[in-house]
Amino acid sequence: MLKLLISGCNGRMGRAVDEVCASEPEITITGGIDLLGPGEREFPVVSSPAGFRGEADVLVDFSSPAALEGLLEWGQTRRVPLVLCTTGYRPVQQEAIAQTARRIPIFRSANMSLGVNVLLDLVRRAAAVLGGNFDIEIVERHHNKKLDAPSGTALMLAGAAAEALPCPPSYVYERQSTRKSRDRREIGISSVRGGGIVGDHEVLFAGRNEVIELRHSALSREVFASGAVQAARFLTGVSEPGLYTMSDLVEWLGGPRASV
């Protein structure tokens, strides 16, 4: 039985993880962490990691960057692996994650969808073939409650394209402040916030006489929650500290334990 602790349990994604686990008989939620308090949950909820006295095999975090320091400290103290699904980390926080991953296993991804991981690979391949002659633009759309922009996934997609380009590109997030033609070495990144859009990412490769569009749309939050639960399963089989990613999870799912 996998014992799971959810950080940010009262948020949209925390509740989505709870719903996914409800259909998994081999997983039990032993507690939650949320600044808003219990929120009528069926498991004990505390306001900070330090207040949790139960047992946990893995912690899944869908909260905010402000919670990171306490989570890293708790993970090190309790020797519990962490699945970090929150976006918007500052560079200094990313370094703290890397340092902590030398002591405990940490899984981190800006997007927990397996489909997005496939999209990343497609973007790398397209950029390797087309990047020298095609302009690259990324458009991401999310609900009106999302705080960070651009999304972490949009930056992942830009990074995937940049890896395959012949010259390092510059990222352009807005164009209204300058009047000039587009530079060939740019990757444009645009953000849309509105309504209840779960998550939509589009990568355009625009050539002189043709346009290629690669797109991923999340139809519900369950796709991210399911990925987080899969990552939690993956970490229970990891014996060495390290910073693990979706690539590691995909490889694990395709291996001999894929039926687990």
Give a description of the structure.
There is one protein chain. This protein is α/β, with parallel strands linked by helices. Helix content is 33%, strand content 25%. It contains seven helices and twelve strands. It has helices at residues 12-22, 68-78, 91-100, 114-130, 152-164, 222-236, 246-253, and strands at 2-7, 27-33, 45-46, 58-61, 82-84, 105-108, 135-142, 170-172, 186-193, 199-206, 211-218, 242-244. The strands form two sheets. Strands 3-2-1-4-5-6-12 form a seven-stranded parallel sheet, sandwiched between helices. β5, α3 and β6 (105-108) form a beta-alpha-beta unit. α1 packs across α6, α2 (68-78) packs parallel to α3 (91-100) and α4 runs parallel beside α5. The chain is elongated and about 60 Å long. The two termini are 13 Å apart. Mean pLDDT is 91; it is low at 256-260.
Give the SSE layout.
Blueprint: E1 2-7, H1 12-22, E2 27-33, E3 45-46, E4 58-61, H2 68-78, E5 82-84, H3 91-100, E6 105-108, H4 114-130, E7 135-142, H5 152-164, E8 170-172, E9 186-193, E10 199-206, E11 211-218, H6 222-236, E12 242-244, H7 246-253
Parallel strand pairs: 1-2, 1-4, 2-3, 4-5, 5-6, 6-12, 7-9, 8-9
Antiparallel strand pairs: 7-10, 10-11
